[in-house]
Request: fold
Amino acid sequence: MDELHEAAIAYYNNGTMEQQSFAWQFFQAMDIDGNGRVSLQEYTDFLCRSAGLAWVHPEMFIELDRNRDGQLDFWEVLTLYYVARTRTISCRTCHRALNGLYFTCITCFDSPYGGDTFDLCVKCYNGRSYSHPHCLFLDSYVLLRSKRSHQPLQPPDNQNLPGDHNLAEENPERMGWRTALRAMEVALAVGTLGISTFCTIM
Reply:
């Protein structure tokens, strides 16, 4: 989680003022009482009312709480914000969220038909506690280095998601986090390398 925390801060520090503002909106949507801290109750309430974050397990609160004070400050919530935009995959065997290094089936990843990837945590891959027809796997760091493209992905159009214009009136706290997640999506699309060819390195 330390590595994810540092990555979240790096994206924030290098983001535009608008992106930083969206990150604060995400935090404020979770900090219902406005005391500058997010309690476990506020955290779980936020997850319950945020369908897009249903995959986040409540136990992640403990992992996010770096100083173990029982509350999340802005920087700790910023880590959740980053995880929500980048780590929405889970191990196909134990179903835990993959928050760090993990293994991906290259055959599924490179499939021209799209579809889901087959991802495993290190423990399940190491223990061979999975059933899958393909045998070529790479860890997430090696996979990134093995993929190259001459043209980076283009950022999504700067358009609102369908129906977003009404969310602010209906539920202002939901509008804040949705807008913030959209901003992070644009930032990641700009900074992401496109994936084209596979170079065998192992």
Observations:
- The first helix runs from residue 2 to 14.
- Confidence is low (pLDDT under 50) at residues 149-156, 158-175, 186-202.
- Strands lie at 38-39, 71-72, 102-105, 119-121, 137-139, 147-148, 197-198.
